[in-house]
Amino acid sequence: MTGPAARPPAPHAGLTDTPVLRILVQGRSLAMQLCVLLKTAKIHDVGNVAFHGPLVNFIETVEQLFTAEGEFKLQAVGDFLYINQGRLKLDGSSYASYQYLIDEFRNRGLSGFAFNGKVTPPEVKKFVRLFLDVDVKAEDPYEGFSAALLKLSVEHLVPLRTVVPQTGAINVEEARDSRKVAKRTFYRAIEATKTVMLSGRDKKPIDLRKAKRAVQSIVDLILNEEFSLIGLTAIKNHDEYTFQHCVNVSILSISLGQRLGLNKKMLGELGVAAILHDLGKATIPGWVLNKPGKLTAEEWKLMTDHPVQGVKMISKLRGLNELALRAMIVAFEHHLNIDMSGYPKLGDHLAMSLFSRIVAISDCFDAMTAHRSYRRTPFTPYEALHHMLVANREKFDPLLIKAFVNTVGMYPAGTVVLLDTNEIGVVTEHNSRDIFRPKVKIVADRDRKKVDGALVDLSKREEGSDTYAVGIVSALIPEEYGVNVADALT
Ligand SMILES: [Fe+2]
Ligand SMILES: [Fe+2]
């Protein structure tokens, strides 16, 4: 399998494929039907018989698209509508309907919707009512709408907040903008975590508001799938690693939770619990945390006490609520392991909670790939994943670890790979539809000369053929090839 490196996908890439064409045709139907639904509901109530026909058509189209695509998105970008990455073609008969939708979305601060399941008539009726009831003059109409949908359990139509300026089509500039938003969110979350951890260390009252807001932005970004935050977790900043670790674990846990179908509220709680999982470490002196070499029995006791210390600290949070209780359970259980081989030692403990099992996986993965004082070189993300899947498999929930592989891919972001073109690349993002074929940034050409190469989507096939343009031969150790992973990811 040799051939030219695949080019970054263009908006019309693959239009000759029948399935792609079919999805664009269904996408067009979906947009037209949504427009009819909204317009009908403005005149008649959703209970009126006039609403019934459009409702049935819309539900059928959602079902067809969901069967073909899995989760899919209908979004407005600039003056166009997109179904996933495919732009809906404008023509005389569709123009007015598309423009109507684009304006209605924009008025509500939305770029569109993700459909994460088949929808039912009651759900669509609630959705349409709430959509039309949005106060478009509110400071943040998206927020109220999103909360109202959640309150009425409308879970399969997820509103997407506008996070990029709505000018121009999907292009490099916009990709850069969404990357900027993602980075800002990431670094704000680190700052918020730092505040929480340092308050804990100094025995000051812990204010969770900033951390909660940061997690909410992470959840929004992950649900919007504008830009993969997982790539950012692969850049380990040694100075801030303790804080970054908590944010990384939060991002990985939310991503895994999304894969499992947790709703937005649950994802928010999971994200906050993950941020707080190592709060107890704030009580451990830095020299113990960063000690090169083996810990003494006393130091190990201090280290393994952090789950209990974490519970104590979270229990002091003002206004104990369900979120704090979940966070306490995660802090207490995240090192237990499902075979109870970890710590604290409890004898016959009940099963670990779902959140703890999720956080335990994200925690181990991130910790293994970090530069640790007692390892000369950290595990590569690829090695860490394989270690967890093989040598350590008894420690983790087998179903969740499979879902985790689907979340980060077999070659997680940050893995250095040798391609069958003999070029070397760094994985920047996984492809949810093919875990073996991620997106890769080329960093060395076939003569091993360093280059600032193209971003290649390994799931793309050669034009007019079933053959993939480029494939992975093996994962490499970055140090052996002089590859700076962080450079490729930033
Ligand atoms: Fe921990
Ligand atoms: Fe941790």
From TrEMBL:
SMART domains reported for this sequence: HDc (SM00471)
Annotated HD-GYP domain residues: 220-420
Pfam families: HD_5
InterPro entries found in the cross-reference section: HD/PDEase_dom, HD_GYP_dom
Top-rank lineage group of the source organism: Bacteria
Protein name: HD-GYP domain-containing protein
Highest classification ranks of the organism: Bacteria, Candidatus Eiseniibacteriota
